Amino acid sequence: MSDFQPTRAIITGSESGIGRATAVALASAGMDIGITYLSEPERAEATAAEVRELGRQAYVEQIDVSDLATAGAVIDRLVEQLGGVDVIVADAGTGDNAPFLEMTLDQWRHTVSTDLDGAFVTIQAAAKHMVAAGNGGRIIGITSVHEHQPRYGSSAYDAAKHGLGGLLKTVAIELAQYGITANAVAPGEIATRMTGAEDEDPQTIDRPGVPLGRPGNAWEIAAAVAFLASRASSYITGVSLPVDGGMLQMGPHGGSHITSNDWRSA
Fold first, then answer.
1. Model confidence over 125-163: pLDDT tens digits?
2. Which domains, from first to last, does the chain contain?
């Protein structure tokens, strides 16, 4: 096991959901946290308050990761405030849903520029600081089960998440020489605002098609991120870890048991 001991992390999109849970999980693991938000500063400050209650420092910055000319500078500011960066978690994301033949170019660009281009810019900015510091690092992207399997009506989202997975694999082989690992966490259905279940207990939601029978909790994703951000993951790089309750295992079984064409809708 390496002697890497992370103490400073940046999580994009950490005002709610998976990002917020990840910020708290990494603070619990002893890290000061750089928090970013798009349009809800009060939610970001609530995340910061949770981090500070754990005795760690929290710094908050607004970012639009799809604004490629400014996103990198926001990461630079957080690195300066933190005094460096050991972990970057690219969580900020969105998804425009429409059948392929109906998807507009604006919808396509909105999703791809946020989920892929924005991840590239923010990850690269943090990685440059990691390389310059010479202490190694952890790069983690939040992709999706749709990094691995498509969903009807999600061409832009599927393409962006496939692309982010490929980017992280390339980063893994290029930055390994600097002691930096790069991995993805690929959530299934998680009870967050993005899935319309932000305030619901996933244990109360029935999902017969998922082997574990329910959606996941944001904290279950955060736990996987925390492992990949730790020194315990020192020999893991270039992988995508599905955290999906077994969803991805159901392809052939699900296909043979679907009894209507209801799935052909976005």
1. 999 999 999 999 999 999 999 999 999 999 999 999 999
2. 8-257 (3.40.50.720)
- By annotation, the residues acting in catalysis are 157
Model confidence pLDDT, tens digit, residues 208-249: 889 999 999 999 999 999 999 999 999 999 999 999 999 999
pTM: 0.94
Judged against a pLDDT cut of 90, whether residue 104 lies above it is answered with yes
Please say whether the beta carbons of 154 and 122 come within 8 A.
no
What 3 state SS string does the chain have? Answer: CCCCCCCEEEECCCCCHHHHHHHHHHHHCCCEEEEEECCCHHHHHHHHHHHHHCCCCEEEEECCCCCCCCHHHHHHHHHHHHCCCCEEEECCCCCCCECCCCCCHHHHHHHHHHHHHHHHHHHHHHHHHHHHHCCCEEEEEECCHHHCCCCCCEHHHHHHHHHHHHHHHHHHHHHHHHCEEEEEEEECCECCHHHCCCCCCHHHCCCCCCCCCCCECHHHHHHHHHHHCCHHHCCCCCCEEEECCCHHHHHHHHHHHCCCCCCCCC
pLDDT > 60? residue 1: no
Work out the angle between the directed axes of helices 17-28 and 218-228 (0-180°, nearest 10). 50
